[in-house]
Specification:
Length: 340
C-alpha cells in the first residue's frame, strides 16, 4: 500500500523534484518508467512524493551521467549505491555504461537497451533545460548540464578532475570558456541563467584555488600581480592565470576585482611584482584611472612586463610599453617568457 504522505512538507511533488534537478517533470516520470528511479511513496491522491533520499538518487544519476556513463548505467549505479552494494558487483554495469557508441548496450535486466545513447545525443540528455553548446565535447556538455541544474558538487568534481588530469589550459580554453560563452549568450538573449552564471563562477574560482593549493608551492620569487579594472567584478581570467603560473612554479599575487587604479601602482611597488596583468571585461567610465596608473609603472626596470587583457581595453590607446594579450597562452608568454 502506498504511504499517506500528503501532510509531510518535506516531501516533494514531481514538479518540485524536477525543478530541483533542472529538468521537466515528464523527464522525471520517464526515469521512473525506464530505470525504476521512482519515489518511495505517493500521496493519498496517488501523486508521486519524493523524499530527500529519492532526490539524492536522482541527483547521483545525473552526476554519473555527466561523468560519462549512459543514462541506464548511471541509474543502476545510483540505485546500487543507495542499496550499498559493493562496487565489484557493479562491474558489468560500469562496462556497459562506458559504451557510448550505441552498440553492445544490451543490459542484463532488460532496461531499455538503446535509451542510453539516444538520450545522450538529444540536446541536454537527462538535463532538460540545459545550456545550448552545439557540437561540444562530452566534457563541455557534462559541465553545462551540471551548471544548468545548479549542481555545485558535480561542477566541482568535474573541474577538479579536468584540472588534475588535463591542466589549466585545456580546462579553461577547452571546457569552461564554451560553457561561459553559452551562459553569456543565454543571458543576452533572454535575460535568464543569471543564477547559473553566478554559481558556475563561484565554483570555478573555488576549483582553481583548490588546484593551486594542490600543486607544489611556487619558488620564492617576485610575483606576477593580477588584478581586474576598478569597475569590474569579472575576475575569472585572473584565477586562470594564477593557476597557470602556479603550474609553472611561478608565484602570483591575486588582487581580485575592482582594484582602484592607484592601488595597482601601490601593490606593484609593495609586492615587488616582476610583472603586472590587468583584466578588463567592461569598458570603464570615461576617466581611465588604471590606464594612467599603468603608464606610471617602472616598466623595463623593476617591472619586466605590463600586460592587459579582455574586451574592455581599447588597443588604440594603450599606454606606451603596455602589451595586450588576447588569450591565456599569449598572456603567459608575455608574463612568464621562457617558461615551458
Ligand atoms: C562570468 C560572468 C560574470 C560573473 C563574473 C564572475 C567572476 N568572478 O569573474 C558575474 C556574475 C559576477 C558577472 C557580472 C556581470 N556581468 Co558578466 N559575464 C560573465 C561571462 C559569462 C563570462 C566572463 C568571462 O570570464 N569571460 C572570459 C571568457 C569566458 O570569454 P570568451 O569570450 O571565451 O573569451 C574572450 C576573451 O576574453 C579572450 N580570453 C579568454 N580567456 C582569456 C584569458 C586571458 C588570460 C586573456 C588575456 C584573454 C582571454 O579571448 C576571447 C576573445 O575575446 C560573460 C560572457 C562572456 N562570454 O564573456 C558575461 C558578460 C561579460 N557580463 C556582462 C554583464 C552585462 C554583466 C553585469 C553588468 C550583469 C548585471 N546586470 O549585473 C555584471 C557586471 C558586474 C561588474 N561591474 O563587473 C556582459 C557584458 C556586456 C558588455 N559588453 O557590456 C557579458 C558579455 C554577458 C552578455 N552576453 O551580455 N558576469
Amino acid at each position: 500500500m502506498p504511504k499517506e504522505m500528503e501532510t509531510d512538507s518535506d516531501l516533494l511533488s514531481v514538479g518540485s523534484a524536477a525543478a530541483r534537478l533542472g529538468v521537466a517533470p515528464a523527464t522525471v516520470r520517464s526515469w521512473e518508467r525506464r530505470y525504476g528511479l521512482g519515489p518511495a511513496g505517493r500521496s493519498s491522491g496517488g501523486h508521486r512524493r519524493y523524499t530527500a533520499a529519492d532526490l539524492a538518487v536522482l541527483l547521483r544519476m545525473q552526476q554519473l551521467f555527466d561523468a560519462g556513463l549512459s543514462p541506464a548505467a548511471a541509474a543502476r549505479e545510483a540505485l546500487a549505491e543507495r542499496a550499498g552494494r559493493p562496487a565489484g558487483e557493479r562491474g558489468a554495469e560500469e562496462a556497459e555504461g562506458s559504451d557510448l557508441t550505441g552498440t553492445g548496450n544490451q543490459s542484463a535486466d532488460g532496461i531499455e537497451p538503446a535509451v542510453g545513447p539516444r538520450l545522450r545525443r538529444r540536446s541536454g540528455g537527462p538535463g532538460g533545460r540545459v545550456l545550448a553548446v552545439p557540437g561540444a565535447s562530452d566534457q563541455v556538455r557534462g559541465l553545462a548540464r551540471a551548471a544548468s541544474r545548479l549542481d555545485d558538487d558535480s561542477i566541482a568534481g568535474q573541474l577538479g578532475d579536468l584540472l588534475v588530469h588535463h591542466g589549466v589550459a585545456h580546462t579553461w580554453d577547452g571546457v569552461l570558456r564554451p560553457v561561459f560563452r553559452a551562459v553569456g549568450h543565454r543571458w543576452a538573449r533572454s535575460g535568464d541563467a543569471i543564477e547559473v552564471e553566478h554559481l558556475l563562477s563561484e565554483v570555478t574560482v573555488e576549483a582553481l584555488r583548490a588546484y593551486r593549493a594542490f600543486l607544489p608551492k611556487p619558488a620564492a620569487a617576485r610575483p606576477v600581480l593580477l588584478a581586474s579594472g576598478s569597475a569590474d567584478q569579472h575576475t575569472l581570467p585572473l584565477h586562470v592565470l594564477a593557476a597557470a603560473l602556479t603550474e609553472r612554479h611561478l608565484p602570483a599575487r591575486l588582487m581580485g576585482g575592482r582594484l582602484p587604479g592607484a592601488a595597482v601602482g601601490l601593490a606593484t611597488r609593495r609586492t615587488g611584482a616582476v610583472a603586472v596583468f590587468v583584466w578588463r571585461q567592461l569598458r570603464p567610465p570615461a576617466d581611465d584611472e588604471e590606464g594612467s596608473e599603468l603608464a606610471r609603472l617602472p616598466m623595463g626596470r623593476t617591472v619586466r612586463a605590463v600586460v592587459v587583457g579582455g574586451p574592455g581595453w581599447d588597443s588604440e590607446v594603450l599606454p606606451a610599453g603596455v602589451r595586450q594579450a588576447h588569450d591565456l597562452s599569449s598572456a603567459m608568454q608575455l608574463l612568464a617568457p621562457g617558461t615551458p
